[in-house]
Amino acid sequence: MIFANPVAEPGEWDRRVFLRLAGLGAAALGVGVLAGCSTPTFTPEHYAGRGEPTSAHIERAIEAAVAANGDVRLSARRYAGNLSIADDAVVRGAGEGESVIGGALTIGSRVRLAGITVRPSGTHSTFADGAHGSVIEGVIFHGGSSAGNLYINDRSARDHRFTRCTFAHNVRGGNGVRIVDKGTSRKHVENIRFESCHFHDNHRMNFECIQRADAGNPVVLGYRRIDLIDCVFDASGGINVSYDSGLLHGSEVERSSGYSTVSGCSITGGGYGLELAGAIEMLVQNTTIRHTTGMLLSTSQVGPNPANSRFRGNTFTSYLRGGNVVFSGTGNTIHGNAVHTPGQVRFATCGETRVSGNTFSCVNDGPTAISIEKSFGLDFVDNTIVGGARRSVLQLDRSSVRNSFTGNRFRRPVVAFDLRNGTQVSRSANSVGPGRSGMR
């Protein structure tokens, strides 16, 4: 259903669904009702009279529609000016690329918005402070500021959904989307879902969600459930997708933000594919990341501290030696992933993590396929690890301890294991070959 509300009571928005089924896509009306339907429909043209309708006239139509429990219908034309969409408004355009708003949006609570294109100049769309429970479907966000086409900062926003939206190239060099959580109850962001959205080639990042302290206020909260589901990300100039977290107030180890899902996405190109810079409790699953100029996956700034993230069923592919996959933090689960790269899979300050059922194919003439650095308590079970032509397939540095290997298949190693700390890899518990194997 086009206006399904994730937070509404059952039946609250059945009227909107009925409007769609009753043919709301008919020619724009002035003020009236649809045949067989008691809900009034308003248009900005009615308020413009003989003049050119603008966003100001849309706002007048919204005011009347909300008061009458009605809806607003936009024509296939351009409406100049920024547009504020009041709480409880239902606004439908004539379709993507047809109804064009020549300014930025400010979206209120419980808004239903569909089928428009946003083309501001030098500014960005956002939510009103405290807005919640809105559904935005089939909207194209153009233009943007140096921050982003959609920029949420210095405000509270929650329980919003973007479905089948497009975040086009930001001509100001900013992001497609930038979300900033300030860590206080009044400037907190949670439960915003992007589903089946397309992020174009933005100069900086396609998607960025970060936590930054508000001046003079301690960080006591962090963003939650900022989810990317079945989205497509084209190449970006910098990091393609980034989740970034700071520390909770009074903690030297615990991060404040994360708790989000990246599922079923396609991320292609960019300096990094996916960056989790301190974000914890993340779920990354069934996602393809490929052809980055730098790291395919970077989980950084966590160190040996709790991360508790899950990586499962993902595919990482690169043609470049810099296409590394890096895991860090403790308490992770890494299962059923496939890595094909001339780079490395690195476990850096990683601990108490189960690594199972993965294929790590790092065929190269340079670095070791699997590098374990300052890591402890890793449990490698039932993985296939393919090395390169000249280096060892597995390397542990001297500070990596209490790591175990069972049921793994090591393939094409020149020197199977480079174990510098006394760790033993049982030949009877693992399969090594073909190729000359040994230890050093």
Structure in words:
This protein starts with 13 loop residues before the first helix and ends in an 8-residue tail after the last strand. It has 440 residues and is mainly β. The protein has 3 helices and 45 strands. Helices cover 6% and strands 39% of the residues. It is elongated and about 85 Å long. It has a single domain (79-432), classed as Single-stranded right-handed beta-helix, Pectin lyase-like (Pectate Lyase C-like, 3 Solenoid).
Summarize the structure.
The protein is mainly β and about 450 residues long. Helices cover about 5% and strands about 40% of the residues.
Could you give me the name of the CATH homologous superfamily? Answer: Single-stranded right-handed beta-helix, Pectin lyase-like
Based on helices, strands and strand pairing, what is the structural class?
mainly beta
List unreliable stretches of 5+ residues: 1-29, 436-440
CATH topology annotation? Pectate Lyase C-like
pLDDT averaged residue by residue: 87
| CATH architectural label | 3 Solenoid
Strand content of the residues, in percent? 35-45%
Number of strands: 45
